[in-house]
Please model this.
Amino acid sequence: MHIRSAATAFAGTAFLLAGTVTATGPATAADPAPTPDLTRFYQQKLSWGDCKGEEQKKGGDALKGMECTRLTVPVDYANTALGTLDLAVGRYRATAPGDDGLGSLVFNFGGPGASGLTTLAEAKDSYKSLGKRYDLVTFDPRGVGRSAPVKCGKEADEELKEGDGAPQTPPDGSLDHGELVKGLKDIATACAKHTGKLLPYVGTINVSRDLDVLRQALGDEKLAYLGISYGTRLGAVYAAQFPDRSGRLVLDAVDTLTEGARASALDQARGFQKAFDAFLAACAKNGDKCPLGSTAADATRTVDRVVGRLTRTPAKEEDGTAFGVEDLRGAMTTALYSAEAWPALAEGIAMIDQDDDPSLLADLNRLMEDDGNGDEALIAVNCADDPDRTPVSDDELAKIEKEFTEASPVFGRDMVGSALSCTGWPAGTDYIRKLEKITGPEVLLIGTKGDPATPYRWTEETAKRLGRAVVLRYDGEGHGGYSASPCIREKTDAYLLDGTLPAAGTACPAVDPGTPDPDGTELPETVPGV
Model:
């Protein structure tokens, strides 16, 4: 997820469930070689080498030490005559497999639209314990990054980066219904024009089938998998499509399987507002050490003052780049994904308030910069997975604006357009909405009580829908539990390494986000669960 505004942040984690798998009818239990014949895909051998050909702008030699290969899959599993595409696959070999090697552990880090290769390269040290006995494997899903990326053209891409598939809400909060709908339809048309025949086939059902071809090519009888945020949607679909090939599946920061764009966006508006209030309260608990104020009320007044100031006149970065109120909201949203970033957020807001210096918050925003096609892939996949295309009248749009602003005075208004992002796209599959009662092994679901992007309620609902699931709860803040809590990591690793599931009702305590340091607050290296 590529957080340049509040709206972008919310959709990035998985709320606009959409994706069109039109010609590919969903299978409840996939045949090893469904018609047409897929044998050539399932029998391919991977040829591993260095990743020099897979480098992208960001990070330069970021993939150094990773092995890379290409996996060939059909554009349409129901009609292989439509052609093929090659998926970029990367791995780090197990460091100490010995006689206890477990094969491959496949990751999807979310988005949809996050590059698996780039993210694993950045986050590999977080999985050292798993990397002793597993090969750590990931891929750029179809339509993402290095794997036949979705393209929408320069103009649409800029619009998507600003408002996640929707024209930005004007500063005065007004939305012109006709302009909004036209802008959304123009984006859909541009993506179809620039992407071509692949676009209807980038949805999660097809990505799940790619994942099974990858499992076979890796030589694993059962899939071992860790999916984060959107990756939990993919994992749930795989568990339903391929129950006999599912092994140890872990889903962290669990996506909704049932809610459409508007309902899930509203849940997230409430979630981010709640998280922001928790951030202010946590800072104020530090008393005089909180740079925003010694009480929650004082901290709120400081934020309001900075919002008003940036609304009137943007601050300037050292190179002269303007830093306005949308950039502030983007930094706030980014920080709410990880409580580790809360001290930096507090210090960064105070730097603007006291010195008109946006440098720390600008650096926070740069954590989420993307050299790939994350914004385009996000809307394409989400709009392939969501069947809802209910037209919205002028009166209904006004109602939505009011509803979202009441849900979140800080973030809600910016999310209105995002809740309608699939306007102009073909209706997506309803398979995910109907997914329930898997027949394979139990799945481990990790839910965080204070998760702003995938509210904890979604974890409980998904557990009920899957039927065979165990919930591990993290009683802290942020998006995703594995990256935030040593306790969660210990219990997750016990399952992935030894097959030991935690007892039902197991919970891990919150980790203190820390205190802002006026002498220099460090940013986290990455923001989890993109």
In short: The chain is about 40% helix and 10% strand. The first strand starts at residue 67 and ends at 74. The chain has a mean pLDDT of 88. The two ends are 5 Å apart (CA to CA).
